[in-house]
Amino acid sequence: MLEVSGLSVSYSGIRALKDVSLTVGKGEIFALIGPNGAGKSTLLNTLSGMVQAQTGHARFDGVELIGRPAHRIARAGLIQVPEGRQVIAPLTVRENLELGRIAAGTRSGDRNALDRVHDLFPVLAERRTQLAGSLSGGQQQMLAIGRALMGAPRILLLDEPSLGLAPVIVREVFDALLRLNASGLTILLVEQNAKLALETAHHAAILEMGRVVMRGTAADLAHDPLVVDHYLGRT
Ligand code: ATP
C-alpha cells in the first residue's frame, strides 16, 4: 500500500534521512521506533508533503507522493496526526473536527465520519461546544486523531501519540487505534515508547541517525536481544 524507497532528506545540508526504504501493507499497523533525532518525524513529514525529499520515492497505492503538495496528499487519503496534537485552541471541539473535513477537501466524503469519531471518542461529543484549548492533554490527542479521521484517511500517520499522557490515557488512545485498525484502517505509527509500539504493531522498523537499522515483524523485533537491550530495557 505504501512503499518508501531510497528516501533521503537534508535540512540545510544536514542529512536527516539516508536511503530509507520500508513497506507498509494494507490493513496493518506499522511502527517506527528510534531515539530522539533519529528522523522519525522527518519521515512522516516527508510522506505527508510538509518536508521535501532530495531523493527517493514514496508510492501510495502506486501513486508517487514525493513532489506532491501536502493538500493533495491529504486528499489522496494519507492523513497525519502531528506531534504535539496541534489542535486549534480558540476553536471548539466541533470546529476543530470540521477543519479535518475541510482539509480533506471536496473528495466525495463520508457523511458518517462525525458519528464514527463520536462513537470512538464519546468525550468529543460531550464536549463539542467546549474550546479545544480547555481540554486535557489526552482529550486533545483524541481530538487530533478525530480531526484526522474526519478526512476519511486510507492511511493514518501518527507522530508520538503517547507523548506526555498518563498511562491510563495512553491505553485509551491505543485501544482506539486498535479498534480503528480492526475496522480496516492502515496505520503508520511513530512512537518512542518501543514496548507499547511493538505490542501494538504488526511490523516495525528501527530508525537510528536517519537510517533503517532493523525491520521485521513486531514480535520478532520484541524478542531480538539488541532491541531488548537498547529499547525495551528503558521503557
Ligand atoms: P524526536 O523524537 O525528537 O522528534 P525524530 O526521530 O522525530 O526525533 P526528527 O525530528 O525527524 O527526529 O529529526 C531528525 C534530525 O533532523 C535531527 O537531527 C533534527 O535536529 C533535525 N531536524 C529536524 N527538523 C529540522 C528542521 N526543521 N531544520 C533543521 N534540522 C531539523
TrEMBL record:
Domain ABC transporter: 2-234
Domain of life: Bacteria
Keyword check for ATP-binding: yes
Keywords recorded for this protein, A-Z: Amino-acid transport, ATP-binding, Nucleotide-binding, Transport
MF (Gene Ontology): ATP binding; ATP hydrolysis activity; branched-chain amino acid transmembrane transporter activity
SMART domains associated with the record: AAA
InterPro entries (alphabetical): AAA+_ATPase, ABC_transporter-like_ATP-bd, ABC_transporter-like_CS, BCAA_Transport_ATP-bd_LivF, P-loop_NTPase
GO BP, sorted A to Z: L-amino acid transport
Pfam hit, one: ABC_tran
UniProt record similarity statement: Belongs to the ABC transporter superfamily.
Record-given protein name: ABC transporter ATP-binding protein
Naturally occurring in which organism (per UniProt): Seohaeicola zhoushanensis
